[in-house]
Amino acid sequence: MKVNVQTPHFVADQKLINFIQKKMDKLEKFYDHIICADVFLKLENTSDRQNKIVEILLSVPGNELIVKKQAKSFEEGADSCAHSLERLLMRRKQKIRASA
């Protein structure tokens, strides 16, 4: 699966990009028709500790799934987004099976 990581206003290190790539590759176990994933990593200018936002737009045939999480670190946010996407993909797969 093609994963596009976009980081406006800062440069992400390769370790973080590889971590996100692994998380997105695991999603193919749940639904094998994923086209691509667009990952947006944003920093919010607040004094709050949870100032990192991870937003994932997953393209699947028919529509797009969007998940947005705020966390203390980008790794934690990406992990949380991946778990949410797993649930959404399993639900989508069950609906397709039920209609077939």
Question: Can you tag this structure with a few keywords?
Answer:
single chain; 100 residues; alpha+beta; Double Stranded RNA Binding Domain; four-stranded mixed β-sheet; 2 helices; 4 strands; 31% strand; elongated
What would you note in describing this structure?
This protein has 100 residues and is α+β, with helices and mostly antiparallel strands. The protein has helices at residues 14-26, 74-99; strands at 2-6, 36-43, 52-60, 63-71. Helices cover 39% and strands 31% of the residues. The chain has one domain: Ribosome hibernation promotion factor-like (Double Stranded RNA Binding Domain, 2-Layer Sandwich), CATH 3.30.160.100. The radius of gyration is 14 Å and the shape is elongated. Strand 3 (52-60) and strand 4 (63-71) form a beta hairpin. The chain has a 4-stranded mixed sheet with strand order 1-2-3-4, with helices on one face. It comes from Leeuwenhoekiella blandensis (strain CECT 7118 / CCUG 51940 / KCTC 22103 / MED217). Pfam families: Ribosomal_S30AE. This is Putative sigma(54) modulation protein.
Low-confidence stretches: none
Q: What is the architecture at the second tier of CATH? A: 2-Layer Sandwich
For this structure, what is the CATH homologous superfamily? Ribosome hibernation promotion factor-like
Which fold name is given in CATH as the topology?
A: Double Stranded RNA Binding Domain
Count of DSSP strands: 4
Strand-residue proportion: 25-35%
What distance separates the N and C termini?
A: 26 Å
CATH top level is Alpha Beta
Fraction of residues in H or I helices: 25-40%
Largest sheet: 4 strands, mixed
Mean pLDDT across residues: 92
Tally of domains: 1
